What does this fold into?
Amino acid sequence: MSTKMLVIVYCVGLFLLLMELIRRDRLNFKYAGPWIICLLLGIFFGVFDQFLYRMSAWLGFGLTSNFIFFAVLGGFVFLSLLMTLFLCQQNKRNDRIAQQLGILEHELRELKKQNKSSSS
It folds into this structure.
């Protein structure tokens, strides 16, 4: 099996796995979106490998493999940044929910006190 076919089969397999995880509601599309884009780029460059070679030479990389490693590293940094943003958003939501829960518990205690005092 050629490297080109191996890359295509690998990317298509991961793409199908992501689609199955989304279908089973185990993964949100918001989190799967960047991975899907990376896999589609992998399939594109697997099919049109000459475009990859030309782009590598145009950007000044001596070896195409160096360009691929650089692109993968850059992709992981980008995905890490996106995951950090999602995590920060989730932390803000959790803080807001905890504050709202604290307010509701306080109001419930106050209502119970009022109820006890009015029934006595």
Observations:
- Residues 65-120 form one domain.
